[in-house]
Amino acid sequence: MPDVLALPWRKPSGLAARLMWPIAAILAAAFGLVVATVVWVSDGANRIALERQLVQVGNIIEDDLESRARQLASMTVADDAWMAKGQVQGASLLQTMAEHANGFFGFDGTHIIDRDFRVIAGAPYLGGNVADAVSLMMPVASQMYLRIEGGRPAQSRRMAAIATPRDLAFGRLAYRNGRAFIVVAAPLAPSTLVERGDWLVAVSFKELKPDVLRAISSRHDVATLHVTQRPGARQIALPVPDIQGAQRAFIAWDPFRPGDVMREKLIPVSLVVLAGAILFSGFVFLHVQRLALDVARSEERTRQLVGHDPLSGLPNRMPFAQRLDQELSRIVRGDEGLAVHFLDLDKFKDVNDTYGHAAGDELIKAVARRLSNLLRGADTLARFGGDEFAIIQTGVRQSQDVEALARRILTDLTVPFDVAGTQVQIGVSIGISLAPDNGMDREQLMRLADTALYQAKNEGRNRYCFFERQMDETLKLRKVVEDDLRNAIVNDELALFYQPQLSADGETIVGVEALIRWPHPKRGMISPVQFIPVAEERGLIIPLGEWVLRKACQDGCRWPGLRVAVNVSPIQFRQKDFVETVIRIVEETGFDPSRLELELTEGVVVDDADAAEAAMIELRANGIHLALDDFGTGYSSLIYLRRFAFDKIKIDRSFLESMEATGESAILVHSMVHLGRALGLTVTAEGVETVDQHRFLQAVGCHELQGYLFSRPVTAEEIDAKLAMRQGPGPAGAIAAA
Ligand code: C2E
Ligand code: CA
Ligand code: CA
Hints:
- This protein is α/β, with parallel strands linked by helices.
- Among the domains are: 317-467, Alpha-Beta Plaits; 477-737, EAL domain (TIM Barrel), CATH 3.20.20.450.
- It has an 8-stranded mixed β-barrel with strand order 16-17-19-20-21-22-23-24, surrounded by 4 helices. Strands 2-1-5-4-3 form a 5-stranded antiparallel sheet, with helices on both faces. It has a 5-stranded mixed sheet with strand order 10-11-9-14-15, with helices on both faces.
- Helix 10 (357-374) packs antiparallel against helix 11 and helix 15 packs parallel to helix 17 (578-589).
- The longest helix has 64 residues, at 13-76.
- It starts with 12 loop residues before the first helix and ends in an 11-residue tail after the last helix.
- The site of one calcium ion has 5 residues, from strand 21.
């Protein structure tokens, strides 16, 4: 199959790609925004919550310290009551109080310390380790003494009374040797001692063991507290200094982080939303892509329809021209050329008319297939519409390559086609132009192939013709004729020449044949052979014929006794009013009808014999003579000659042309003359050019002669001159009687 200029299908990536990135960017931005917002909000929530928890736990511990301090204080002010009961006294009283504080308030140890920092009562010692206990207690006791004295003037160590020792009680956290403690202190002023101006301080401590911390945290909604020297990164820690105030440990806990919860909940949600958005935009994207695809397909389809013949699927004229341009540009200096074949099916119209358009379509498709099979891949086949096809044959090295393809096409297409249930046979006419021989221009090559095709059809169809230069001339001239003839008739630009017809001895002018000429302003004298057929095709032969007849009759009036022969085209003759027109013109010009001779060809009688016969009888009835022109070239049969009332036959000049070469023609001419004479007709030979021809024709009994030997066609004035000359001094100047 040849390349039918398959147009590549273009991906509609443009629109989709243009959409994809904005969508992706919007999605990414939206998701980024959501994530950032979640992080920001959750961080904020965490921060607030952590601050709160720090304050909360700080307060809980503060409260705890305070309440323990108050408990201790409440015990120490109760000494009066204790003594009143008379249960204990002096040092034993203090000892009882300390034990009582431990037992009653759950301290690990309680000690009573005097102003000289001597432990005067207390139990039990911290884990039996006196040094430990002292190091915890002494700084607190000293702080307590400072508080007691700090509020009053120090001039007297004696204080009247301390109304509310509770207010001075305090607690603090303290760290020592890997353990954290609550240490509380309260002033102790038994009335007995106060009287002596002595002060005592009670100090209690309690280790922050896990169960203590648990008890503290259980009172509030805080995760488990513990004491550690290195709190975790995500933990909150309250500092626990050692008793000297240096930072040593922390109460730490895993805080509740609402932001984390928020994140844990929001991130899956936003992921789901993101997935939804991706899905949605994927859907939108696909939909848009499908739309774009549809648009592209229909665009493609239109392009194909524009560039392709929908019936045969072949490219049409436009892509053919494009491909021809491409192929021409490839022939630069190589030894390979190309050929353009223009094909026109013969008898396609018959198939269409007989079997219908569907059959015609079927036939076109079948032809397209057969042609495709004949071509090589690099060749191009196109359909120009109707029954016209065209081929670009590439890789042509010599004209034989082209001829071979043309012959194959001819043989292949004459094989009958199965169409509409029957077999139909068609033919094809092919016109061929070659590149670079006939040119390298696309338009020119196509025009020349068309000219050659015209020639192939004219020569009888079912053949191929290479373009030849003279064809082009013919065609150009034809164009000129088509364009200008009408005006030439209207503007009286045509000229009528006359060729004398002589008696057999060549001495006397017996008549003239009117022959039309066209002196074209640009192209010079144009022969009737070139424009009469066009005039016939275009219907111009009618006005042209009337013009000739009128002019011939007018001129003929100047030559009394001379017959004037006028050529009549079959188309003209077939006009219903032909006879009428002739008679009218004869009457108008005052010409003697018996001197008028109409030269008809066999075409006149072949088509509608009855009508022709009737017209001829009427013409003859009006005295007009009829001559059968170009005798011997057509179907001439005796029957015609007998049936139709001719007065004369004019032996075609082709017989005289070939007479010298072949003896056969001489015999033919001889018999034609005899035949004419036998039928009682005047016999005229035309195209007499040589003296030998003249002698021969005279010898065989030809009546009249016409040809260049005697005179070429000349103007009416020249005829005037010839006649005057012959009438004058010449020996045989007489004008023959009609
Ligand atoms: P035709 O009717 O056969 O005209 C004779 C042609 O032979 C004329 O050509 C004439 O010039 C030419 N001829 C005459 N003697 C010789 C000769 O010795 N040697 C050669 N080689 N040729 C000779 P022309 O004038 O070119 O006319 C050609 C044809 O055009 C005519 O052929 C005729 O069929 C047609 N024609 C001419 N004038 C008219 C016209 O007014 N009306 C019509 N319908 N056809 C015309
Ligand atoms: Ca003639
Ligand atoms: Ca003739």
